[in-house]
Write a structure and sequence with these properties.
Largest sheet: 3 strands, antiparallel
Order of helices and strands: EEEHEEE
Number of helices: 1
Number of domains: 1
Distance between the termini: 14 Å
Structural class: mainly beta
Number of strands: 6
Radius of gyration: 11 Å
């Protein structure tokens, strides 16, 4: 099973994800930006603090994305 090994946040609120087989995916966070705590991610400085956490991505404010969506 592929796991996420790297996440690179982009200025356009996209995430570039690298998987363990070195394939890449892009995920658009913008559709979520008006939902609950996701609104805090409109702060680009906070958005860029994304990190890999287990099988998903998360931010310091506790927001994460279901790996099934990624």
């Amino acid at each position: 099973m592929n796991k996420f090994i790297k996440v690179v946040p982009k200025d356009d609120f996209m995430l570039e994800l690298t998987l363990s087989d070195l394939s890449k995916k892009t995920f658009d966070v913008k559709p979520f930006m008006n939902l609950g705590k996701f609104q805090e991610l409109k702060d680009l400085d906070l958005f860029k603090k994304v990190r890999i956490s287990f099988d998903s991505v998360e931010w310091p404010n506790g927001v994460d994305i279901d790996p099934e969506l990624l």
